[in-house]
Each structure stands twice: as C-alpha cells, then as structure tokens.
Write a structure and sequence with these properties.
Layout: E1 5-6, E2 8-11, E3 16-19, H1 20-29, E4 41-42, E5 51-54, E6 63-66, E7 81-82, H2 85-93, H3 97-111, E8 132-136, E9 142-146, E10 149-151, E11 164-180, E12 183-194, E13 197-207, E14 219-230, E15 233-238, E16 244-246
Parallel strand pairs: 7-9, 10-11
Antiparallel strand pairs: 1-6, 2-3, 2-4, 5-6, 8-9, 11-12, 11-14, 12-13, 14-15, 14-16
Length: about 250
Amino acid sequence: MANVSFEEFYYNEDDQIHDLYEIQKEYEKNNGNISKYRGHIFCPECKIAELSFTHKTSIRRAFLSKIPSSDHAEYCSFKHDCATKSEIKQFVRLLSDKQIQDRLEAALNQLLPKKAKEGSGINNESKDNPLVIEVDNKKGSGVRKFIPRKSINTWFDKSEKNKIFIFYGHAKLETKEIATKNGKRYELIIKTNKQNEWIKKTSVFRGTTNDNIDTKKIYDIAILGIIEFYNDFPQIKTVTFSSIMFR
C-alpha cells in the first residue's frame, strides 16, 4: 500500500474526529510536547490504525501517517492504494447520475455521521465502502483503490491543483448570478466557519442551474471534483455535472 497522509484523526480520549492543525498548534504552543496525543490518534475512518505526527517546517506542511507496525481494518478505504485521476474518471463514466448521487450521499453518511459514535457507516466490507472503487489492472482483473477525500475546512494547496477528491464538510451556501453573452449562468458559493464567521472558501460553477438554497441553513456537502485556482482563489470543478450533492 502506498504512503498516505491524513488531514484528520480519530482521538480516542474524547471519541471524536479532529483536524491535523490541532496537533500542530499544540506542538508550537508547548515547544514540541504533544504527549497528550501520542498513542491516542488513529485513522479517522476505521479508528484502528495508529497514526504518528510529523510537524511542519519551512519546506513542508505538517502531516499524519500510519505507524508501520499498525494496520487498517479490512473494510477501511485506506487499506488500498489511492486511485489515479484517470482511474476515477473512467469509473465515474460507467455510473448513472443517480448512482453518482447515491455514492456521494453514502460518502456523506460515512464522513459526516450525525453522531461520532455511529462509526463509519459501512458494513465491514470494502465493496460497500463508497470511497473504494474497482479499477482494472494491467492483467485485466479488478483491483480496489480509494478515492482521496478532502475536508473543505482544510487548506487548499496549489500542489493539489488538478487532483480529484471527494470534498466534504459543513457549509453555508449561496448562488451567484453571472451574466454571459449566452445568457445567465450561476456559481455556487461555499462558505466555511472560521472563528464563528462564515467565510467564502471556494465555489463551483453550476452552468444554467440556479440551485434552490436557503442561505440561513448549514448544509452537508459532498463534491467529486478537481481543485483549480483562478487569481489564487481555489475553485472546484465537478467531474460530471451531477457529482455534487448537498442536504
């Protein structure tokens, strides 16, 4: 299995999912002392594989990685290698719009459970994991790989440009009308909560679709898309028009 870095972790002291930046903040605050986390941070999906922390430097970001002596549960998507951009696109081409929507909703149920103790929401078999797809290898047989996921609350780095992720998170949404020579077009604005203020994080071009949005509500959102940057601002381009869902 290829090396995978994690932006989130399961903390067994409070049975909750936390963001990587919390450990980096603790590292900086306590001169490198992160003893409260050692031995207590695990894979955010299966909650079994133990993780280790590597602090950020002037040339690299902080990251979490699996301890070599530990392993993921058999049903965990991180048990597999990461699917390539072309493999994901090839898989999605075989799906109907409804199948794409069903997979995104299943991914939301897993990544954003209503209660932390509900677990991963999958049935202990990787074939039921919405983040795992089957691709053909060079021998023509099926191999399971995972679609990388990225919380919309984390940093969008230019090194991730043109990579496919399932983006997910809690967001406030609004539509923006764009006047073009071919008529009205619309953009979906995605705002995330930063220090109790909802700030524009990214957007998705929606073509002629004017989404019915209640700007006062907080939505769960999942997008199978690609990071692009325009004037240094990150935007998400959906792999297909139907590869976005919010509830």
